[in-house]
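Duplicate of #3305? Posting structure anyway:
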């Protein structure tokens, strides 16, 4: 078996983790979720979820990964708790299912890059979305997106993931920052900002049962938690890194990109009348933006920039999703990385075909991941770290950390009590929300 790789530098790890975190979740879902769920009022719930639940949970994955130097499944075994490997197994399944539909949306982005260059969506943005989002074109672009993902993962941790994210993450920043400045000059920009950020508490109060699980699910998704990505990535890390410092950097940068995405999207939508979507279904972001790009000055170029950012963000996340099952198989069997990544990638691509044929099925994959798999996976990891693993994990947090051992003590109690309670509640609300959507329940019972 070849020797296990490690990141070449601390910055390499941070950029790879930021690359995983920053994705379609930040640029595609976040602005629309915020706008349709009460603006700044939703933002407060979301930020609380990110910093109070997501950040400590991320540290939980970091200690498991770095202590064990193993992939998400073997990590539990190598720490001496083999029966908890199911937690990692849940992550492998979760990342597999998520990548299956994530890649289909990545394929849509490819179609919109082509459409920005050729002008194909300018005439009839709704028809364009219909043509590229489900059917043979969607299957083909999904396959291309998966091929790009497989290519990078097959090259390895340093030559593939680290090298790619070192270029992609700074490019995302420069492009999205540039776009935010550019669109601030559009007529209607200030109306866009106030729509995005003005708090509407009544929306939250009216749908607490739906908004809380969405905000928490969004927080976990955007931070790439639950599926073992952060376990796998931190397993390639040296002992002298400060996990709390690295984790804070990742969480803050990820949040900034999400906020910045809103500063790009809303001025564009408010530059033309009637472009602001009523609700944020899977396709509304694409159709609403494409119709705005077709009407504003310089819209085609802004559109191209926007969809390129979206592609880079999506790819730097999809590689982390494929890395979870790949590292598991490579560590476990000693197979070569290249055929493993190709084989697993092809299986994911096949699993994604139904979602490339029907956006309704894609919506279901998405809802099951957000409302069920993600909170469940994070809950299991938190219970493991807080109650099952012994002190070795709290000690691990102190290694290389300048935050002091009071920090790790508070963190441990937080992960023991606060996080399980918060996620348990969210999980109940999430299951309820799935049952309401499926028509089993006619209205929410809890917080209804
Ligand atoms: N964090 C990514 C995004 O916001 O788009 C998506 C993601 C990647 C979720 C990896 C989960 C994961 F394990």
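Output from current build:
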């Amino acid at each position: 078996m070849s020797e296990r790789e490690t990141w070449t530098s601390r910055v390499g790890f941070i950029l790879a983790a930021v690359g995983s975190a920053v994705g379609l979740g930040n640029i595609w879902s976040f602005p629309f979720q915020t706008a349709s769920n009460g603006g700044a009022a939703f933002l407060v719930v979301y930020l609380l979820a990110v910093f109070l639940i997501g950040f400590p949970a991320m540290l939980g994955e970091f200690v498991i990964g770095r202590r064990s130097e193993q992939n998400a499944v073997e990590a539990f075994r190598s720490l001496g708790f083999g029966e908890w490997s199911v937690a990692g197994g849940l992550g492998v399944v979760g990342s597999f299912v998520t990548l299956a539909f994530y890649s289909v949306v990545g394929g849509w982005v490819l179609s919109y890059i082509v459409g920005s260059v050729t002008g194909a969506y300018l005439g009839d943005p709704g028809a364009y979305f219909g043509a590229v989002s489900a059917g043979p074109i969607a299957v083909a672009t999904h396959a291309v997106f998966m091929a790009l993902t497989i290519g990078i993962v097959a090259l390895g941790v340093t030559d593939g993931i680290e090298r790619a994210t070192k270029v992609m993450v700074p490019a995302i920043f420069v492009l999205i920052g540039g776009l935010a400045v550019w669109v601030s000059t559009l007529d209607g920009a200030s109306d866009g900002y106030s729509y995005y950020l003005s708090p509407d508490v009544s929306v939250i109060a009216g749908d607490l049962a739906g908004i809380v699980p969405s905000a928490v699910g969004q927080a976990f998704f955007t931070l790439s938690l639950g599926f073992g990505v952060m376990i796998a990535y931190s397993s390639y890390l040296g002992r002298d890194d400060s996990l709390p410092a690295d984790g804070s950097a990742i969480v803050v940068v990820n949040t900034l990109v999400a906020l910045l995405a809103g500063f790009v999207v809303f001025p564009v939508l408010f530059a033309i009348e009637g472009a602001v979507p009523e609700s944020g279904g899977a396709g509304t972001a694409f159709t609403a933006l494409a119709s705005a790009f077709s009407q504003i000055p310089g819209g085609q170029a802004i559109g191209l920039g926007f969809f390129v950012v979206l592609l880079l963000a999506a790819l730097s996340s999809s590689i982390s999703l494929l890395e979870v099952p790949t590292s598991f198989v490579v560590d476990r069997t000693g197979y070569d990385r290249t055929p493993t990544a190709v084989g697993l990638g092809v299986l994911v691509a096949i699993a994604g075909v139904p979602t490339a044929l029907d956006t309704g099925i894609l919506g279901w994959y998405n809802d099951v991941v957000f409302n069920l798999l993600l909170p469940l996976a994070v809950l299991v990891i938190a219970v493991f770290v807080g109650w099952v693993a012994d002190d070795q994990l709290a000690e691990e947090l102190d290694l290389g950390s300048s935050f002091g051992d009071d920090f790790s003590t508070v963190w441990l109690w937080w992960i023991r009590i606060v996080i399980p309670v918060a996620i348990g509640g969210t999980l109940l609300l999430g299951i309820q929300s799935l049952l309401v959507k499926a028509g089993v329940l006619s209205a929410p019972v809890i917080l209804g």
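Confirmed duplicate; merging threads. The two ends are 55 Å apart (CA to CA). The domain at 10-438 is CATH 1.10.4160 (Hydantoin permease).
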